[in-house]
């Protein structure tokens, strides 16, 4: 068999296409570029083809510097593309001052939009990321997103359950006191990869079936 024939005989496996929609934690901030964020690190670890959307200061309600909510960024940056295998919506940090009921409604509306556009795509919601101690409002926002995830029947992953700072504050947190360093993004990616695998959402053949709804307390 010729070299060309051997190459043609090997089936080509397409890597999963995964879209991340989020805020500055997802798209990059300060010295951390988009290709070095936890979203990119997760994609590299799992062999995903990554598409990133959203912008700094945005959320389900918050419009940020780009003047768009997650729903609007989905419509402008993602909805016109071919269907992905997975859509990860990660955020809520910038919605902490919004009414929880309004956040829940916005989450349900966005999930509905994604499902209407791509009925076969899986959806995962990741709650607000807080590297330092989170304020009470962040937990109310987290609970609103978790509630919407449960109602919509999609998995919810909660970064607020993690202790990101131990004795290495300057190693994981930028001087702005909000965003993770490059090492902080690496920590986030390791957590997300492990959590996705544990809940059967990473595309691993040997992973257990995916669980839906909020994590048990």
From TrEMBL:
Query: Is Hydrolase tagged as a keyword?
Result: yes
**Alphabetized InterPro entries for the sequence:** SGNH_hydro (IPR013830), SGNH_hydro_sf (IPR036514)
Do the record's keywords include Hydrolase?
Answer: yes
Instruction: Read off the Pfam families from this record.
Output: Lipase_GDSL_2
EC assignment: 3.1.-.-
Where in this chain does the record put each SGNH hydrolase-type esterase domain?
20-185
Q: Which UniProt keywords apply?
A: Hydrolase
Quote one Gene Ontology molecular function term: hydrolase activity
Top-level class of the enzyme under EC nomenclature: hydrolase
Stored Gene3D superfamilies: SGNH hydrolase
Q: From the Swiss-Prot or TrEMBL record, give the protein name.
A: SGNH/GDSL hydrolase family protein
Q: Which species does this protein come from?
A: Microtetraspora glauca
